[in-house]
Predict the 3D structure of the following.
Amino acid sequence: IHIGTSAQYWEKVAPWLVKGEDFKTLDYSTLGVAIGISLANRTINLEDRVKILEKENKALKEQIRRIQYGS
């Protein structure tokens, strides 16, 4: 089984990944690194967002508790 993607697509998105003029090829090793870095950054951003939402959720639960019990 062979898996691939279009060099013409990537030329529009990230031209540094494409080599050649008439016959375009994709530098898969660089693409793999770029995707890995992108995924790592997204993971870090999502972890930060989760921490913010957990803190907000805790504060809202505390507000609800105070309203329910009048303290």
Notes: The mean pLDDT is 91. The longest strand covers residues 18-19.
